[in-house]
Amino acid sequence: MKMIAIVLALMLAASAAAAASTSPSPNAPDKHDSGISPPEGEYQGGDTIENAVVVPGLPYYATGTTAGFNDDYDEACPYGGSTSPDVVYAWTAPIDAYVEIFTCESGYDTKIYVYEDEYTPGAYHACNDDNPDCPGPAYRSWIPLMEASAGSTYYVVVDGYGGDFGDYLLTMREVLAPQPCDVLCPSGAFDENEPDCYDGYIDETNTGCGWPYVFQYPGLNTFICGASGNFNDNTIRDMDWFEIVLEETKTVEFCVCADFYARIWIFTTPDDCYDYYMFDTVAGEANFRHCMEHELGPGTWYFIVSTDGWIGVPCGSEYVASIFEEGYSPVERMTWGTVKAMYR
User: Fold this and answer.
1) Whole-prediction pTM value?
2) Domain with residues 49-175, CATH architecture
């Protein structure tokens, strides 16, 4: 029920507020302000699929409003019965790709859904309402991984919950495709070496900007072998923070392969743990390699690995993460046979 989601989101928001105080919660990081959307855009959406605004290419950023438009569409994912006005965008995929779509920094309770090639009520291609890991305010929407086929046209509808409407910021961008993988720790990797969590566990290894403030420093261009899980009756997830300081701008790829549904983040900070911000995040299913690649400027960067949610992952569940700058080959650290064995 929507009320349950609202109560949960309020609880998470409270945890996030605590993270900015002297004793932040280890569950707070994904609720901080995001840096992944640009501050402004353009291109007001169209009223219907027939006059949808064409997206010429990705990445694509648009700002607009749903105020004054008609309520033409609705999908339940899981909340239906919306009477909110909606607007539409149309994008034709030039190649097979994976795309993320979000309205995380919009001014109202948004919902987004996508139709493939034609209007198919009740049979959407992708949909989200209230993604709890959406950076920015609560009750915003995020489709983190949508598969798109070359030549198909995708109609992206920006809608709202109930009768809510207002200003929105829409972001569409291509993301790296997940690849099947096996969780094999390569020789020469950095060993997280944290004890398996348990109910009552206090992380003193790499809780980062949780509590206490403890980081690990694996260095750039390395694999990291570690473990995570849910504990304290499925109310806390083990979050492993790795700090790297860049002296100059570099393009960095951050990936994870885990035997559980894992999430990775990149955070930055202008003022240690009292003021830190999420730069980007991605999550994906077990035994698939999920990555993000960004140009990162000089300064302190935090790379975080954890379970995606708070329920159902046993402590000691394993992962292998990697942090490599563009142009650096992992073969320089280990044999090609070892690296190749990780990917099926």
Assistant:
1) 0.69
2) Sandwich (2.60)
